[in-house]
Amino acid sequence: MPELPEVEVCRQALDEFFAGREVVAVEISDIWAAQLGKAGIDFGRRAPLKAGADGSQGLVGRTVERVGRKGKFYWFELAPPSSPCESTISVVEGHLRMTGGWWLKPAGADWPQDERFANGFPDNYCHARILLDDGSEAVYRDVRRFGTLKLHTEEQHSQRLAVWGLDPLGTTWRFKRFLQAVSGSRRELKSLLLDQSRVAGLGNIYVSEICHLARIDPRRRSDTLGEDEWRRIFDATAPLLRESARVGGTRLTTLDDLTYIHEPQLHLDNFEVRLRVYRRDGERCMRRGCSGEIERAVQQNRSTFLCPMCQS
Ligand SMILES: [Zn+2]
């Protein structure tokens, strides 16, 4: 599942691809439209409609200004229509969940033809197709279909931003703010760091990595950590996420994980090889001077990886 760096890589690609372009057509698969509809999301019904005179209808005719991100959510910001009203959609908010990903085809390019797509591309896992005014095309593909796209007004978007916690790559990432965000909890450290309303963007992989970098056992109760220990966690977090995003994020070995971004021009590295503890149980700890062996523990039914020698 993509975490902050992977979503940031996706955001950058989407921003470069969509910014300044007008949406010419939107197609949504029936199966995904129905599934979203059941969850109370009207994207499948509304998005393919033309932007109406009151600006309140669909996406067709709207121009994307930029693509933003907070935590694991990303969103397309739309330029205001000629006659905005109270119900005007200004944002399309997305979450990739388990297997969501975007495939981007510049005008004149071809979709991939390889063993992953025996029946051609787009295939049955592609659920949204967006045509842009320069002839380029974006396809949203999601094998397990847990991902979402939603249409929001400015007000709805502001309410969403307020729900999500501090983003470690955002402008409000300061130690004081971080301390406030993590205070007042007796939960295990890992569970606290996964709480998206406190710190937005961390998941199973990076929490293990951050706790190892900070030399703290993720099973510790949060209210037992001293300020120096929180400082070590704070200091480890942003550089780790920034470096991972810089090289293209962590992509694990299944093909599905490779589909969240398709940008043949970029020769992306994979942060997986730089992970220090995640899925390295049984291996020697990479910390200089430590002779520990990485262990796998289970917290809330999910794997945690740590070195019992240097994390306490
Ligand atoms: Zn160690």
CATH structural fold name of the largest domain: N-terminal domain of MutM-like DNA repair proteins
Q: Tell me the distance between the termini.
A: 28 Å
The number of distinct β-strands equals 11
- SSE series: HEHHEEEEEEEHHHHHHEEE
CATH H-level homologous superfamily name of the largest domain:
MutM-like, N-terminal
Quick check: average pLDDT? Answer: 90
Q: Which cofactors or ions or other ligands sit in this model? A: zinc ion
Shape: globular
Gyration radius (Cα, Å) is: 21 Å
Overall domain count? 2
**Strand residue percentage:** 15-25%
Low-confidence residue ranges: 253-267
Oligomer: single chain
Briefly note the structural class of the backbone.
alpha+beta
Helix tally equals 9
Write the layout of secondary structure elements.
Elements: H1 4-18, E1 23-28, H2 30-38, H3 43-46, E2 64-70, E3 73-78, E4 89-95, E5 100-105, E6 126-132, E7 137-142, E8 148-153, H4 154-163, H5 175-182, H6 189-194, H7 204-213, H8 227-246, H9 255-258, E9 261-262, E10 295-299, E11 302-306
Parallel strand pairs: 5-9
Antiparallel strand pairs: 1-6, 2-3, 3-4, 4-8, 5-7, 6-7, 10-11
The structure holds zinc ion.
Which key terms come to mind for this protein?
single chain; 312 residues; alpha+beta; N-terminal domain of MutM-like DNA repair proteins; Helicase, Ruva Protein, domain 3; five-stranded mixed β-sheet; four-stranded antiparallel β-sheet; 9 helices; 11 strands; globular; binds zinc ion
Tell me what the structure shows.
By secondary structure, the protein is an alpha+beta fold. It folds into two domains: 4-163, MutM-like, N-terminal (N-terminal domain of MutM-like DNA repair proteins); 175-306, Helicase, Ruva Protein, domain 3 (Orthogonal Bundle). The chain is 28% helix and 20% strand. It has nine helices and eleven strands. The chain has a five-stranded mixed sheet. Strand 2 and strand 3 form a beta hairpin. Helix 1 packs across helix 8 (227-246) and helix 7 crosses helix 8. The longest helix has 20 residues, at 227-246. 39% of the residues are buried. The model is unreliable at 253-267 (pLDDT under 50). Bound molecules: zinc ion (ZN). Zinc ion binds at residues 285, 287, 290, 292, 307, 309-310.
